[in-house]
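Course assignment 3, question 2. Fill in each field.
Student: A.L.
Task: Predict the tertiary structure for the chain below.
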Amino acid sequence: MYSIDLLNIGINEESLYLRKLNYLCFCTIRGYIWQDVIDNVFFLQYFTHHNLDFSSFNFETSLQEGLDAMGFEKPTPIQEKAIPVIMENKDLIACAQTGTGKTAAFILPILNKLSKDGTTTLNTLILAPTRELAIQIDQQIQGFAYFLGISSIPIYGGGDGIVWEQQKKALETGAEIIVATPGRLIALLAGGKIDLSTLEHLILDEADRMMDMGFSDDILKIVNYLPKNRQTILFSATMPPKIRQFSMKFLNNPSEISIAIGKTAKGVTQTMYSVYDTQKEELVRNILSQKAYEAVIIFASTKDKVKSLYKVLRKQFEIEAFHSDLEQVEREKIMSDFKNKSVKILIGTDIISRGIDVVGIELVINYDTPSDPEDYVHRVGRTARADAEGAAITFVNPKDQYKFDNIEKLIGMKVTQSPLPEGFEAGPTYSGTPEKGKSDFGSKKKSGYNKNKKSGSGGNRKPFPRRENSNSEQPKANHTKPVEVKTPTEAKVASQQKPGKPGKFGTRKNVIDPE
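Answer field:
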């Protein structure tokens, strides 16, 4: 037990210490994990600007005291650029990757305005694509607003009747800020359960993800319920033309900010394995057996594959599956267990690739190559946070080679290809985008393919790619030598692969969790 002699420290230091202690107690009572609330501060210290600190924004005293208690010192680039624009009450389109402190970039100026004006009615609506992100934003608001007396409510679907009643009661009690998923908010609006006539600020977080999930029409319906005279702020991790065109439907002459799109963190070592689908299961076991990992995320393409892989790996590892078929209380428990490290490995789809801030993730495994290059950036962005080092490994089967080629184009680098471990039979030759005139499933011309010959065993020839789960694919190997996962200080980030020709990549489906 540690003790502190408050008589021997200055009054300002004593006040700050007590405020931190009170704040920690508040987070504990609310059931928050202390690290969750301050992640936006901790994992981005290396992004700080040396000539500007938070006092430069001239926030209200109570808000600044809260930032001091939480350890905020210097703003990240997106905070430095976005906060002044929002404080000037201008509409804004901001493009910044997850993990750049963007949540604080829009929360802090809004809280400052609410504190300054003394607003007590519903003032701000924040839309988020998933319930996990909505809950996380709400928790961060509660942390920032601890000294302000400003309240927020998370509104999301997927919970039981008790959760729904709690949300309705909270709405009746009143709050200055609502953080909602579009689907649940539409249901409330249609039922006349919520009045947005006093709203002054609309914020869309992860706008590109919401569009990919099919929420475009819902967002436009919600906008129709809002006052015309309002400030609208849109944050997106990527900025394809469709996002810009969509935003013009409800933003008014917005300012624009863009921070380093499409790049992965410097601290992450990226490698790939060219494999057949039947080699993946044994390879992931091989990698996970290498060391006692504290935090690993495995991404699979569908929730059915998540469930299947979970059944296999749970026999050997401390692991949980995270997918949309789970009840909300189950999802919250799994995520809480993963954050406090009682669960070491988490398997899921891209539903956990954004908005989940967990410091200390050592390894990300892409069991399936993501169809959208931006999804790769978000998946890999789960590791190498807090200026730490991490590793990201991607399994690439023959039919997904063109997808990985597009990923390398987006991130602006060639990813190192690692050889399969000792004991594995040879995988397919990786060549990036299929050659002109050839489909993803091989050439229509004669290729010399011998159907009686084992796949993966023939020299440098490009093997005829197999369909997923084919019985004729490359067999798994037993008694293999563990894969060595290196950190950036140990690995070379160069690749000897030849760059592939440009190729098209598939369109995302408008779903939360693919089947």
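Instructor remarks: The CA atoms of residues 125 and 225 lie 12 Å apart. The longest strand covers residues 268-274.
Grade: pending
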